[in-house]
Amino acid sequence: MTASSGKARRTSPWAALAYVLALLMTLYAFAINVITFATNDYRSIVLQAVGLAGLAVLLVFVIWRRVPAAARIMLVLCVLANLYTLFDAGGRRLPELQVEPAAVQAIAAAHAYIRERGSDPLGAEWSARHMPDGTWSVMAWHIVYPNNSGSSRFVPGGHTFYTVSGDGKVLEVTEGR
Asked: Strand 136-142 relative to strand 159-164: parallel, antiparallel, unpaired?
């Protein structure tokens, strides 16, 4: 209520739209961060979460004075969730996602193994993890639906594990189920 008119001030439609957009961006960035933490770390997805969280925080600062006081409570929660995403994904997880040269060599060994058998290694998404025994566990998710995005490109069980030795030889192949 304003002192001069006695009526409540209305929120502009643009501020209301920006408010909803900030909420949705926050939920999406937070969900991306939590999902990639629970599954496999993909650098591009984590970068997307960091970017959305940063944009949502900037949007909150732009619309802060244009929304009612009750909506500001939700915006505070949005900023807290986005700051968590920025510090968790951006500060802790992105440095962990740097590619090691040895991981690239292990993936290249699995690529060569597939090419020797007449298959196409480019129709997969690859990741490698160093195992305690000195070998590399290389996982290839076979892309079944290349026109889709995200996890809808794959099918359950559409992956293969390759155990690669330190000198680049494929020791074991385990198909997904």
From this structure: antiparallel
Q: Say how far apart CA 94 and CA 90 lie, in whole Å.
A: 5
Edge-to-edge strands of the sheet including 136-142?
124-130, 136-142, 159-164, 170-175
What pLDDT does 1 receive?
Answer: 47
What is this structure's pTM? 0.49
Distance CA 160, CA 164 (A): 13
pLDDT in tens, 11-68: 788 888 888 888 888 888 878 777 665 455 566 777 788 888 888 889 888 888 888 8
Place of tokens 């594990």: 161
Structure tokens at 37: 């933490």
Based on the number of CB atoms within 10 Å of its own CB, is 75 exposed (0-12), middle (13-18) or buried (19 or more)? buried
Q: DSSP H helical segments within 67-168, as ranges?
A: 69-85, 94-96, 101-116
Strand partners, 162: 138, 173
Q: Which of these, 64, 63, 55, 60, lies nearest to 28 by C-alpha position?
A: 55
Is residue 124 helix, strand or coil? strand
Question: Which token pair is 154?
Answer: 């794959």
Rg (alpha carbons) of the chain, rounded to whole number? 23
| Count of C-beta atoms within a 10 Å radius of residue 141 | 19
Please enumerate in sequence order all residues whose Cβ is within 8 A of that of 41, keeping only pairs 6 or more positions apart, or say none.
93, 96, 97
